[in-house]
Amino acid sequence: MGKIILTGDRPTGRLHIGHYAGSLKRRVELQNSGEYEKTYIMIADAQALTDNADNPEKVRQNIIEVALDYLACGLDPEKSTLFIQSQISELCELTFYYMDLVTVSRLQRNPTVKAEIQMRNFETSIPVGFFTYPISQAADITAFKATTVPVGEDQLPMIEQTREIVRKFNTVYDEVLVEPDALLPENQACMRLPGTDGKAKMSKSIGNCIYLSDSADEVRKKVMGMYTDPLHLQVSDPGHLEGNTVFIYLDAFCRQEHFERYLPEYAGLDELKAHYQRGGLGDVKVKKFLNNVLQEELEPVRSRRKEYEKDIPAIYDILKKGSGEAREVAAQTLSDVKRAMKINYFDDADLIQAQVEKYR
Ligand code: ATP
Ligand code: MG
C-alpha cells in the first residue's frame, strides 16, 4: 500500500510563519513529490471548539482564513484533499470507540496537553472534549489510514498516543488500523519556532505571531520590534545567540543566496553570527536583513492569497468537495473498524445463525 499523508490546523486564527516553517512548506513539497498516494489536509474546527466552546464564531470565521492560507502556500486541491473535520461525522464515532482503549492517567501524562491546560488556565476545570482531543486526533489520523503526519514538535505526544491506540486496537480486535509516523521539520529551528516576544512557541492563541497574510509593513514593524539579546545594549557589546529570536528566525528562513542579495559583506550566516558574538554588530542591521529574507519568502504567498480572496464561494466549494471525498474514506474505515469489533450485527450471518442454534 502507498504512503498517505494526513495533517491539519485548528481554525483559531490565520496561519503564521511558525506553521509555514514547521509544517506548511513541507506539506507543499510532499504534495508535489509524487511519493504519496494521497494527501489529506484537515481544518480541525471540531478540535478548535474543544477550547473555544464559548467562542464558536471565532472558529467559524477562521475556516476561510486557514483555507486561503493553504492555497496561498501552494496546497493544490487537485493534488490534496482539503476538508473540514466537523463534516466527517465518522470521526466522532471512531473517537468514541477509541476512548475505551485509553486511560485517564495516560491522557494526563501527555506533556503537550499539560502545557496547553496551563496556558489556557484550565487547571481547575478542564473541558472533557479538550482533555480527550488526543483521542480524536487518533481518529483523524487513522480514519485515512495515514502513514505519515507532517507536524511540528509539539505534536509528537499525539502521534505516540495514536500509535498506542492503533497497536491496542489491532491486538484486541483485528489488524485494521495503520500505525503512523510523524514527519518533523529537518531544520532544528523550524521544529518549534518561538514567537516574536521570544517567550514561547509562536501560537495563534498567544498573539506573538507574524502571519502569512500580514502586509509588508506589518511584517517589517514586527521584525524591528522582535526580542533579541537583553544583554546586547550597545553595538560594541558581545551578543548572545541562545534564545535570540532574530537568529533563530535566520536559522529557519535564511539561505545562502540571501547574503549575496542583501548582505554581501558577509560570506554567510556563520560569519554573521561570529561577528554578533564578538561585538560590533547592531541588532538593527540584523533585523533589517531578516526583514528582507522574510519579505522575499512571504511576498509570493501574499499575492497568491489576494488572487484567491477574489472568489470566496469557490474556496467553500473546494472544501465541500474535499469533505465529500474525505467522508467516503472515513466511512470505509469505520466500517472496517465495526467489523473488527464485531458490532456489525446486521451483516453478521454467523452471529444470527449462532443465535438460531442457541434457541433451537
Ligand atoms: P493554537 O494556538 O490554536 O493551538 P497553533 O498556532 O498552535 O494554534 P495549531 O493549529 O495547533 O497552531 O498547529 C498546526 C500545526 O502547526 C501543527 O503541526 C503544529 O505542530 C505546527 N506548529 C504550530 N505552531 C508552530 C511553531 N511555532 N513552530 C513550528 N510548528 C508549529
Ligand atoms: Mg496548537
UniProtKB/TrEMBL annotation:
Pfam families: tRNA-synt_1b. It comes from Cuneatibacter caecimuris. GO terms for biological process: tryptophanyl-tRNA aminoacylation. InterPro entries: aa-tRNA-synth_I_CS, aa-tRNA-synth_Ic, Rossmann-like_a/b/a_fold, Trp-tRNA-ligase, Trp-tRNA_synthetase. This is Tryptophan--tRNA ligase. GO terms for molecular function: ATP binding; tryptophan-tRNA ligase activity. CDD domains: TrpRS_core (cd00806). It catalyses: tRNA(Trp) + L-tryptophan + ATP = L-tryptophyl-tRNA(Trp) + AMP + diphosphate + H(+). Belongs to the class-I aminoacyl-tRNA synthetase family. PANTHER family: TRYPTOPHAN--TRNA LIGASE, MITOCHONDRIAL. Its EC number is 6.1.1.2. One of its GO terms (cellular component) is cytoplasm. Keywords: Aminoacyl-tRNA synthetase, ATP-binding, Ligase, Nucleotide-binding, Protein biosynthesis. The keyword Cytoplasm does not apply.
